[in-house]
Amino acid sequence: MPTPKNELLRLISAATVESFWTAFDRVNEQHGLICDERTGNTPLHFLVLSLPKLVRRSTVDLKQSTSQPDVITDETSCAPWISPAVALLYRLAVLGNVPVNAQNSQGNTAMHLSCIQPHAEVLQVHLIRLGADPLLENRYGARVYYNPQTKRGHLVKGLPSLQCGIWDAIRREDTDCVQKYLRAWSRTVVINSEGQSLLDFAAATGSDEIHRRITEAQATSELVAHSMALDTEKMLRFLTSRREKEKCDLFTCDQSFDPPRPLIAELRLTYGQRAEEVIQLLASYGMPDEHSYLDQIQLEHDAFDVCPFVLAVTNAKSLEDLDKAWLLLGDNEFNVRNRRSKDGASYLHFLVERYFASSDKPLFQRKLVRLMFRLALVGLDVQARDHHGRTALVLAAERYGNPCNEKHDANQGGDCSKCSTKTSHRGSLVKHEGGVSPLQNVPVQKNQDEVPYSNGSTASTEMTTQLEWSTKSLLGSSVEKCSAKPADVHSTIPDQHLLEMLLQLGIDSSIGNLKHQCLQKECFVPRDALTIRARNSSEAQQNTKCLPGAWPLIDMLIRAVSQNKPKEQVSYLLEELESSIRDHLVRVQVRRNGLTLLELARAMLPKGVQKQRRKQSKGITTQASNAQISAAQHLVDLLQRYTGTTEFAMAAMAGDTKRMRHCLAMGNGTQKLNASLENYFESVSNNLRASFVKRPLILNVMEYSSPEAAGLMLKAGANVREFYPAPNSHGPLVFWAFNEFINLETTMEVAKHGPIDLRDINGSTMLHHAVNIFHQLHKGDRNGRMWVSLIVLTLLNRGIKLGLRDSWGRTARDLATGASDQIGDESRGCQVKVTYREPAEEPPNMDALHEIIDRDTQEPLSLVEIIDRHVVRLCRFNQLHLIEELIIQGYEPIQNALLRFPHPRTSLQLAELHQHVELAKLLSRAPKYQEAMKALQEAVVSGDELRFASLVNEWCLLWCVDWRGRSLLHLAVIHRQNKLALQLIDMCPSLANNQDSLGRTPMHYAICLGDGRELFLKLVARMGGVDKTIKDFQNVSIGSYGDQFEKGVEKYRNLVRQECELRPPAPPLQTTANSPKPPEREGTQHVVSWPVDVPTVEKDTLLDSKLKEWIRQMGAYSHKIITKDSG
């Protein structure tokens, strides 16, 4: 005859719904002593181990019960097999006195087994309620980390200081944490593995507050435990007790749920009709029913779809609408944890979808990226997965199709082709070297049914068949890509820049979808690009560069430290982790399963170290322990070093100026302001490799964030003088703000606070760029024209040098004189379609417009009028030195500059009117001085020493420059007039530092003369030395010029000859077919263009020869696109 012990275990092992309910009815107090002699398993262990068999034998739809990998939903709780399992669990622990912290022969508790057995995660929240200690170690050092938000536990190793569970909270004397567990119905009448009760354990700490709170919660927690055990007899004792200490809180709720879950609702959702008697008993004593809670659940279920933020983004028609949506994220009523009912998508998934849906609106996409960063800062779980198991990172990587590149490409051309509903046609931020090429998505796959800490006891459910399928898929895609043409590869990778932004948010790239696909670095073509493909477990564990981001590396670090790997391997992983954080400025404070990177690193330190005591863990030698402590401490120090910088980067990208100021106030502001993404994707090279560039944070802030954020960084001291080496760069960072994908408000902030003395790689100033923007605007874009006029006025008021010329000899005023109208005149009779810059939605502040509005016509002044009025005002306030500088620079329209209000007066008339005698005399002699300068320059070019001697000492002619910004010393060196060059260097040694319109000093040319450096060495001797690190505007030093010349590089060999052959351009107000080809345009991709509305033109035989010639010269370096109409 079977004993009660064997009968109970037999019923549990039978693993049917009926056997579980039978066992439930037979549980008594004696079953707490039952233990299997061979394995040491208690009935609780048997219950957890039998759960997979119970699920298989039940008739429940498993698809419904596993629909969400992140959260235990109400639908999951209502599965038929859950009710008997949960009821038996409570009955064994509460009535059977089976200890929940009992360990079997391997040291595993029921909590350990629930992390390993399929479907057993449903019991974890109940085990925590019953007082399970998740931090108990088994024989292999594995413990459980339980996340109260997701109601999930995970096996971990190598984290001795991990904080989890009510027992640990009491040990740390963390009153708030203890209260949190008590409000989640954690049972107080429970013992630990050593037989000590929770109350005694709390009393041993000496904390009266913790002991008092546990005592107060005891009656309520027991009522909950007996209610869940369906024990009406004991429930009546608590409900009818009149003793103060046994009074229960009938309005108690489990605060770990959102919204908080009442007891009756928990009973109804878990047991259904089987708990009707218990529910009626509780209701008779005044406990609120479940209807209010279920109504709240329904509201939460539909909250995502009716959320004001979602509606605002979905219905957004303008950038202003997205700015309003940004403000909604700060609303107290906004619940960041809501999910979309149909697929479990989070708000981040939603924004990624909207991002791809706005492929034809690149400015919209940038605003959406800003919202993503804002969501992360307000507490969104960026690791959240939808019903398909995809994080937002995987969702973005799965999207194919980027038919046009609208982001960093200056020569944006062509129409964005339509894609199917399964494709995302974004104006990709990806381009191909040497031309505009779209980039798209390649399938990458990964093995992820893993616990979040793959450093130890990683529980993977990947099947052999899945591995075979993944291998075949990977090999097939690799063969296909290797056999494809280079141009075809661009359609096989996802939007790289969006993926990099999501990595910066801190999303774990090792988390894959249900097909075990995850984001990885491509090992084939295009090499090193981010793609989605099946994850090879062994490869991912051995290759640290396979998975991008910080989480995979910190998992490897924890595993290496816990397994006592060699010091060299640990040091290598630390270096890789630092490199990964710097590559994307990965947020250190991002959470995965409730823990940040820094908290996870601190958990690696032994508890003795946290308390300033060097205790050694059991089973670890002193040498090994010290090595672990050292590695963990280095990791903590590394993460602490980057915490402030990454938080500032997050706030800057989100446009949160308040948080930015707070980060700067914490110190180390220079490092934060000048932070860079060390490995930012730039393009796919011709050899099918992804190329990367170091990208300063300020550029991404200009491009994605708000004008206020960019302005704050500039005012705080962000360095925008640095040369940006990207192929589509203008040179110094400040000129990035003048790209057409940058909001004009941001450009205005740069004009207010950026350095005005900088010049781009073609010698253009910020004023040139501002004028060029004006000619990219449609004539109907009144707001845009007012913004540009204000930008020009701001630059002039700040003192930008008006007389500087670019490499084609044009001042900003030259660019402002009607080239757009000229295009219309010269293209008359040809059908062309002009693509303009997107119109500005908002006008500037009306208080700032009075200086750019004509008081008679109430229309905005033209740029020429604004510039001329500025020159006249210089004369009005007797700025003699500035007028002298304009004359020396060859700025001709000085005398005739006109001020129309209140009466039309030229600069000369105004100087005479205000009795500025010296200035009036200078202005009257300006034509004579300009003729003398030309004569002096011709004398230097021809080597006429007598003519040179007669003119050089007159006025300030020694400082004059020609149309290319070349000084007299430049001309003497270029035309090999050695005697005059030596004479000039004796007269004025500072001429050797003057830069022409390309930033070259006379020494740049002297070292490339091909005379065995004879003149160069003589000049150096006369000056007493030269700094060979001086660079031109393309960031090339004098020393590099010499090295390239010696190597025979054609550009440097022919440099001086080409400069000698250059001739001044045609008059600036005319553009004809005889205009010279820009000399420095070759090999450059992104430069300031003529103020024309086009960058490339489709050739047509119908175009007349004059227009064809103009297009050949000007179309190669302009910003807009002219395309031939289909008609």
UniProtKB/TrEMBL annotation:
PROSITE patterns: ANK_REPEAT
InterPro entries, A to Z: Ank_repeat_dom-contain_49, Ankyrin_rpt, Ankyrin_rpt-contain_sf
Superkingdom, taxonomy of origin: Eukaryota
Protein name per Swiss-Prot or TrEMBL: Uncharacterized protein
Keywords per UniProt: ANK repeat, Repeat
SMART domains: ANK
Record carries keyword Repeat: yes
